[in-house]
Amino acid sequence: MTARRPFGLPTADELSQYNIWDSYFLPLQGPDDRRFANDMARSIPTIDKAAIKRLCVFLHVGLGTADRATETRLRGDPAAILAPLKKWPDRLLGMMRLNPMDVRGSLDALNRWMRDGPMVGVYFASSKQASLPCNHRNFDPLVKRIDELGGVIIQHTWFKTGGKDSAGESTPSELAELAKRFPDIRFVCAHAGGEWEKGIRAIRACPNILAETSGFDATAGFIEMAVRELGADRVVFGSHLPSRSLGTELSKVLSADISRADRMKIFGGNLRQLLDPILSRKN
Amino acid sequence: MQKLDRRELLGGVVAGAAVGLTTATARETASDKLPPWRAIDTNVSLFHWPFRRLPLDETGLLVQKLKSHAMEQAWAGSFEGLLHLDLAGVNSRLASACREQGDGLLIPFGSVNPTVPDWEEDLRRCHEEHKMPGIRLHPNYHGYSLDDPRFERLMRLAAKREIVVQLATTMEDGRTQHRMLQVADVDLTPLPDLVKRVPGTRLVVLNHKGTGPEFMQLLKIPGVYFDMSRVNATDGVARIIRTLPTGRIVFGTHAPFLIYESAMIKVEESNLTEDETTSILHRNATRLISRDAS
């Protein structure tokens, strides 16, 4: 667009001042480089328009969390796992996808990719083949080890009307059960449960759970309720790019009736605080 | 990476610097000094969403928001039209609110439910008494499918009156609906054939995600438009504009249910040409409402 008022957005300078860090970036690996490269190409103009400075990207590490062709590629060529981090080192922060159905393999992978490698956190997704509800005891040794390494834990959650998509999908209530077993470890509740009015309530009594903002329509009032019930210190921004739009995700925080100080925390301050131990350790 | 200190956490913000556009405190921003785009919002609703209070569900607040973004018009339906049976009362309140609180911005689109007795009188009042240029339908909340003969009769009467019909395919993501009121998205499959049978149809499909075979098929038919409030993916709006016949996508926010700026930013992030932007923001809607919809 030309020299008109940005449509719905502050100016680039104003956005830059927010110092936005993204906790939920979703370009996808595939059986070759093209899928990830294409998703990055779709995303980078938007990332730059929003002045998003760092993005947590969720990477398969060969634990059976991806489709068969992608798994075959990553197991045969482990260098491909880190290729995105090497190609975009100033943008991407690696979060590895673990498989709670394979505890031994996941513990080994934590040593390889987080202790000895560049990963700074973990994403537990929902999939038919490689997920369990996060209150399952298999999570306990993984959570302990991630905490020893200083990594950030992000857990996919949804409360879906009509029930879960798969038996392994997690709800915010199940995350609250896990978080109560580890009161000194912080967890990120991805998507705030989707149905956020219930999701926020489910995690409200667990001060060690933060709500992540992406993955559902830009329904008005979400951030206001999250800040009211959890406090701004417990909310982190996610873009869900490129499969969701900046309009959907940025507007939730940008347009919320909250203070600028709270907006700054949600847009990046809280995530930087979560990442600080492991980023400091990895220098 | 160095340990982050407070200065870094604050991103180097200087006290008193410009703030975001949409905070409750309206302070001047750098972008306010730039000329605004002309825009018509084809998809807002007045009154209260049945399941929660929304930040802009008071008409005066919604109008303030429209003004803050220099909207020229907003085509307004009523949340009351989803579940109320006295739609004559619903439409009367809608017309009054638009007239008395809209400052000329709100254009009322009344609700008509062809499954309730004497619905034709509701249609007549919308057009003749309230001077509405269109109506808004909610087939899923009102319990009929698009192959229902009553729907075809309604479409024929609307075409005869030369009014715009807005058809909301959904109001919210089915995954987040109240468990005691689960409403499936409207099945649009019968629509292409019906539109071909009803000449003069001017139809806007609201709240569709802009994907799927029925979407592609409908956009080939003259007189059928889509609003983009729920189109997703960062390149979603650009994709549908550039792969489909020109002039069929109109700007809509689905406010106040959705955050007002969500749809605006979708347009901004799409990196459209000036002509594409003008088309989606107001030219297509202007053509549609001025009866030059083919």
Q: How far apart lie the N and C ends of chain B? A: 59 Å
Largest interface: A-B, 64 and 70 residues
* Mean of residue pLDDT values of chain A: 96
CATH architecture of chain B: Alpha-Beta Barrel
Précis, in short:
Chain A is α/β, with parallel strands linked by helices.
Give an overview in words.
The complex is a heterodimer of chains A (283) and B (294). Chain A is an alpha/beta fold and 283 residues long. Chain A has one domain (13-282): TIM Barrel (Alpha-Beta Barrel), CATH 3.20.20. Chain A has helices at 12-17, 34-50, 68-76, 79-87, 103-115, 139-149, 172-181, 196-203, 222-230, 246-254, 260-282, and strands spanning 20-25, 52-60, 92-97, 121-124, 152-158, 187-193, 209-212, 235-236. Chain A has an 8-stranded parallel β-sheet, with helices on both faces. In chain A, β4, α6 (139-149) and β5 (152-158) form a beta-alpha-beta unit. Chain A is globular. Chain A starts with 11 loop residues before the first helix and ends with a helix. The mean pLDDT of chain A is 96. Chain B is of the alpha/beta class and 294 residues long. Chain B has one domain (35-289): Alpha-Beta Barrel (TIM Barrel), CATH 3.20.20.140. Helix content of chain B is 37%, strand content 13%. Chain B contains 12 helices and 8 strands. In chain B, strands 1-2-3-4-5-6-7-8 form an 8-stranded parallel β-sheet, sandwiched between helices. In chain B, β3 (106-111), α5 and β4 (134-137) form a beta-alpha-beta unit. Chain B is globular, with a radius of gyration of 20 Å. Mean pLDDT of chain B is 89; it is low at 1-27. Chains A and B meet through α1, α2, α10 and α11 of A and α11 and α12 of B.
List the helices and strands and how they pair.
The complex is a heterodimer of chains A (283) and B (294).
Chain A: H1 12-17, E1 20-25, H2 34-50, E2 52-60, H3 68-76, H4 79-87, E3 92-97, H5 103-115, E4 121-124, H6 139-149, E5 152-158, H7 172-181, E6 187-193, H8 196-203, E7 209-212, H9 222-230, E8 235-236, H10 246-254, H11 260-282
Parallel strand pairs in A: 1-2, 2-3, 3-4, 4-5, 5-6, 6-7, 7-8
Helix pairs in contact in A: 5-6, 7-8, 8-9
Chain B: H1 6-9, E1 40-46, H2 59-68, E2 73-78, H3 80-83, H4 87-101, E3 106-111, H5 119-129, E4 134-137, H6 139-142, H7 149-161, E5 164-168, H8 191-197, E6 203-206, H9 213-218, E7 224-227, H10 236-243, E8 249-250, H11 260-269, H12 274-289
Parallel strand pairs in B: 1-2, 2-3, 3-4, 4-5, 5-6, 6-7, 7-8
